[in-house]
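M50 family metallopeptidase: structure, please.
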Amino acid sequence: MAEWRPRVNNGYRPPSYRSEAGRREITLLVVMGACSILLWGSPYGGYLLYPFSILATWFHEMGHGLAALAFGYDFERLVIFQNGSGYALYTTMDSPSRLSQAMIAGAGLIGPTLAGCLLILASARRAATRSALVILGLVLIGSTLIWVRSMTGWIVLPLLGVASLAIAFKGREQWRRFAVQFLGVQGCISIYRDFGYLFSEGFVRGGQAQLSDTGVISQALFLPYWFWGGLITAMICAMVFWSLRRAHS
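Here you go.
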């Protein structure tokens, strides 16, 4: 004999975006993300958000490095400086193709958003939320051992990894859900740690002029760097909107 019972929400699943509670939760995450961007743009905001500034650089540079691996290149090292800037160094026996250069540059911009959206989507299920925090913690620690070659990275990234694991195994369900959503939003907006970078053709590091990621894409493909900056911004906004709505559906 079959018996029907209504599904009971145990308080874990994110509230629907159609409800007041859901809209309030989404608004809070968006506001916190916007505040992070504004603080990064202020003179001392990067220091107030220092662990997340380092995390933002890690997301960005790991996007470059993993894309280089996908193309068969050697991801040699990831360096994060004390001021929060950094770089991913990859080497290859042959000259990289124009397509691979554009894809590797773009991966540093879109890759963190993709990872962030996956974290946000994971918040819709209890098991997925814990798994996401565990995976993030292990990847932070593992990438430090394999690729990171700077003191700042050696100190900050493992601490963030341990914190992620601690929340996964010791935190309350609601805190785990909020943490994975917040970290997901941080991943999505990580490229805006330096807002002007996305809309600049290049920059100077160590007295040497270098192309920005959008500058590399423009040089490797076509159309100006500001076009790619605008397109990537539109893609990031659409991905964040979709993932937040999906997680709260």
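Notes: The mean pLDDT is 86.
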